[in-house]
Amino acid sequence: MAKQDRAVRTRRNILSAAATVFEERGYQAATITDILRTAGVTKGALYFHFQSKAELAYGVMDAQGRRMGSVPQRACRMQELADTVLLQTYRLQHDPLVRAGVRLAMDQQATELNRGAFFKDWSVGTTDLLEAAKTQGELLPHVVPAETAELLVGAYAGVHSMSQAVSSYADLDHRTSVLLRHFLPNVVLSSVLTTIDLSVDRGATVFAEVESKITDAYEEPQQDSA
Amino acid sequence: MAKQDRAVRTRRNILSAAATVFEERGYQAATITDILRTAGVTKGALYFHFQSKAELAYGVMDAQGRRMGSVPQRACRMQELADTVLLQTYRLQHDPLVRAGVRLAMDQQATELNRGAFFKDWSVGTTDLLEAAKTQGELLPHVVPAETAELLVGAYAGVHSMSQAVSSYADLDHRTSVLLRHFLPNVVLSSVLTTIDLSVDRGATVFAEVESKITDAYEEPQQDSA
């Protein structure tokens, strides 16, 4: 048990170091040596958890993804979708692991990684939410959930990149709000729209709500109990 | 005169090689040696036109920008905006120089370049068009041109990145159409909306229209006549 705790701590330590190095240097220029130095672990410890640079990158992206999807189910599914987006913005502004995961997905030079799969994963989660919203009659009749979901994922990725380039994420909350205000009226029934909370502190509120429930994002997925 | 022609040809040749190398390797990993080899010019010829890798990147981005802004003024300014976006999609699918310019602007590892300035340039052009559309009463009253322009630029950049990651731009025309169909109804008066042509072949039609009028994108900006 103590041994497993130590392994979990080491894994977390390595992923956190990898996130820092990937964010600073980009996938292509980052080396396992940089990550070892930043994590302060032995080569053996690192290779016990991750076999390659690509595995480290997938580890960071996967941890990012698990941090993202933790808004509890809402009675209004479109509020749940808005909360997911606002929470992601809050995390991008505050959490280096989330930032590194998204930057890897946007890293055009990370040709070794299947970046398309990450866009697809995000789209699938968003499509599911839109399908659920459609089923309970929250959406305008013309909406095709998969199409709208892919647009939202792509548009958000770009708004995030632009915010990173022009303000190092400082204006991302404003840009996210502009995106949602342009996007939702064309997707959601007016009667539902008036109930959706998009206030400026919503991201922080949702973060406080879910923080206590976060499963440790650095842990190995589907880990068996010892 | 013949001498100047040769200089223009050499400059074009170098920018075209730089575009290829930046697109393949990314800004960080690209070297002037690669670009020299691809262009097949001497070091002296390259340094006569460009002093550094950053200057080469700005040359590519600038040429991209000049290719982009060439839709003639339309009676309906929102048609002009839609045409600019559809033309850009057509060019991204067909022109390596345009692709390289946009990829440099999205290259997170090109920390040496002022990438924010390029997002701002695109936003300024888009804001101008939206201001003009507002002045002639094409827009819904709540629209703030600068805010909507920045959103469109950011969202388009993301849709483009996602298309590149999942389909190497093959689905960019469909994604662009989904973006415009979600975006325009919340910005443009319904009566104007019904007149806007977003048909699938619109990008190709606009390209054919403007092609003959393209000033040579590879030429030096504000070049004095000899």
Automatic annotation (TrEMBL), chains A, B:
Gene3D superfamilies: Tetracycline Repressor, domain 2. Keywords: DNA-binding, Plasmid, Transcription, Transcription regulation. Residues 31-50 bind DNA. Pfam families: TetR_N (PF00440). Signal peptide: none annotated. PROSITE patterns: HTH_TETR_1, HTH_TETR_2. It comes from the Bacteria. GO terms for molecular function: DNA-binding transcription factor activity; transcription cis-regulatory region binding. Transmembrane segments: none annotated. Residues 8-68 form the HTH tetR-type domain. NCBIfam families: ScbR_bind_reg. PANTHER family: HTH-TYPE TRANSCRIPTIONAL REGULATOR BETI, HTH-TYPE TRANSCRIPTIONAL REGULATOR RUTR. This is ScbR family autoregulator-binding transcription factor. It comes from Streptomyces tabacisoli.
